[in-house]
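question for whoever is on the cluster today: can someone run the full assembly for these? two chains, 229 residues total. i dont have access anymore since they changed the login thing
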Amino acid sequence: AQTVTQSQPEMSVQEAETVTLSCTYDTSESDYYLFWYKQPPSRQMILVIRQEAYKQQNATENRFSVNFQKAAKSFSLKISDSQLGDAAMYFCAYHTSGTYKYIFGTGTRLKVLA
Amino acid sequence: GAVVSQHPSRVICKSGTSVKIECRSLDFQATTMFWYRQFPKKSLMLMATSNEGSKATYEQGVEKDKFLINHASLTLSTLTVTSAHPEDSSFYICSARTGGLSPLHFGNGTRLTVT
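^ ran it for u. tokens below:
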């Protein structure tokens, strides 16, 4: 069965610094998608970044980038130049093309210190 | 684009009553919508998959008679919590995709409190 693991329940980062959130997953599939979602205090789930497993190039969205290591089944999120508005719960998620289900990790709460 | 609207955002009801939560895709058609439940400081748990024009598919352990799902059109799915009890108090979130492999877009959630 597919699983998604986020081993860091909570992380802190100083404003303007860089932080990396970890995510590992387990799957026997070769074709899948990985996501990072952000859930601020408003509870709205917001897509941060997406990575297709068949792409070797790491996805980047402005200050957000991923380190996708397919062989290691690792998908970490790097936030550069952290801002106060980045404070939120961050969920790593997995999805295969063959099923409608998304599998979410348990989340990492990110605190940004002024 | 790809906006999912969920209503109400908060609802308080008395034990034994039923509550309906609506999920609408505002600018796209969604043949499939998903209902999640989130406990405090926990991850999202998929409850059921709502299919337009057919019965919903429920995840193991989710009572289909308690959580009624109706997907009557390509832009609207509803979740009705029947005979609500305090243990049904939770945060419920719906989501939808614009296409088969597109990311999930989420509604803003409904906080249900059963007194």
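summary bc i know u wont read the tokens: The two ends of chain B are 37 Å apart (CA to CA). The CA atoms of residues 50 and 56 of chain B lie 5 Å apart.
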